[in-house]
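G., the chain you wanted modeled:
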Amino acid sequence: MIKSIIQCPINIIVSSYRNLASLVKHQNLDFLDKYDPQQVSLLYEPLMIVDQNDRIIGQTTKKDAHLLSNIESEQSLIHRAFSFFLFDNSTFPSRLILQQRSSEKITYPLLWANTCCSHPLYNDIEINGINGVKHAVIRRIKYELGYEYDLELIYLTRIFYQARNIPDDGIFGESEIDYIIIAKHKQNSQLNLLNDFKINKNEVKHIKAMTLKECEDLVEQGVTTPWFTRIVREGLLAKWWSAFDRQELNKDSQASDEIIRL
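Predicted structure as tokens:
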């Protein structure tokens, strides 16, 4: 069963964001030396800090948003993110494009997830709700997957989850309000993984088109990210997939205050 919508307050840092910058200056960042330099550079992208109702209350770096010391503290840091699902309905049954994260990824390396998972940035364009998130989706699928086709992006809902890194390094984790965005591959021909994608090997090791049953089997193998695992096990993916196959998902869901807690 789908777990309840967020109702209880979550302790969140709501003040003194200027202290984050000064704090970073005094942190020992030597521990980052063991990671891929390109991935480390991305840790300084500006993300949105939000409250339990997804209201923007500040900004921080990607690094600080994912530090367990900020997530598991009394004042838990939550940031805005998205999970994108690209379906190919040129076959029956329809298929979902999954990616295996690269070994260079700092969080959840080599685990499988939905098509693209990332963050809208704290800038004038991407702070603008659903439209800002859609802009971030297009930006990231081009960067990660080299996918250049026009897409009609559809917003479904938001989820909230927290998780520690896998393998658990005691350093990083997730604490996100995640916008669920879907689209279908609209070309006349069947989606071709070799021709339609030019993957960024620093981000993605493999991509694969899978049926719902194959996605469920992959989750049971224990090789998927926490958010994808929970989405599948709570029945959300099956629900969205069924509505997609019935061609019921043709426009954005009505904006609401509902955030599904996983």
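The domain at 37-261 is CATH 3.90.79.10 (Nucleoside Triphosphate Pyrophosphohydrolase).

Shout if anything looks off.
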